[in-house]
Amino acid sequence: MAAFTQHATGLLELTAQVPLVMGDRMVKNRQARLHRPAAIVRRTELRHVQHCVQWALKHQTSLTIISGGHSGHYLRTNVVAVDMGAFDQIHVLTSGAYDSDPRSGPGSGSNSSPLIIAEAGCKTRGIVDKTMAVGLTVPLGARPSIGAGLSLQGGIGHLARMHGLACDAIVGAVVVSTDSGQVFYIGHVPIQHRPVGAVSPRNDAEMLWAIKGAGTNFGIVVSITFKAYAAPTYTTRNCIIP
């Protein structure tokens, strides 16, 4: 890791290709408020993430990632932060509505199960609202503004007893490698949601395991494929006892 200042000439090389976040940004985490990043860039295309990784490799420095903004590590002093907020699309794929993957096995997200494709900038509230509208759900946390970091680091929520942790629902992901900037699809990602040029890595199973909380710093997650479940419904009644 190498620290650098805001005046480093290499930063101009990056900002010429990737747009900066203009104006003040709300910082939710108290620990993160103590840090002063060199810059915050906001990617609007997949190639922007690749530019950031390739630039960091060239200058031997670090990147941090902003999703929901609750982590104390998403801002670091003199380090470039990559804001994923522009990528907030959610796609609901019902059973049989997507191309199957020959590597998929039982319970791994084959087209017998509905899937949710959530991009890295999505928040819990957006995913829950979108899935509940069609009678589905994903076991996420209870805080509506939490981002992708929840499911990528375990994820305890109110549906954990029924469906396990949030990471247990992950069946695939699109990831930009921090070793090369190459785009990978790992696990089960429907064909229509794989970026052009994305390839499956040789250590596919290990990378799928790692994004569920087993490791960090090997890639920047662009989108997550979740296995969805039928949303439970309940009848409630208020009782007033004198």
UniProtKB/TrEMBL annotation:
Coiled coil: none annotated. The keyword Transcription regulation does not apply. InterPro entries: FAD-bd_PCMH, FAD-bd_PCMH-like_sf, FAD-bd_PCMH_sub2, FAD-linked_Oxidoreductase, Oxid_FAD_bind_N. Keywords: FAD, Flavoprotein, Oxidoreductase. Residues 33-231 form the FAD-binding PCMH-type domain. Pfam families: FAD_binding_4 (PF01565). GO terms for molecular function: FAD binding; oxidoreductase activity. Belongs to the oxygen-dependent FAD-linked oxidoreductase family. This is FAD-binding PCMH-type domain-containing protein. It comes from Cephalotrichum gorgonifer.
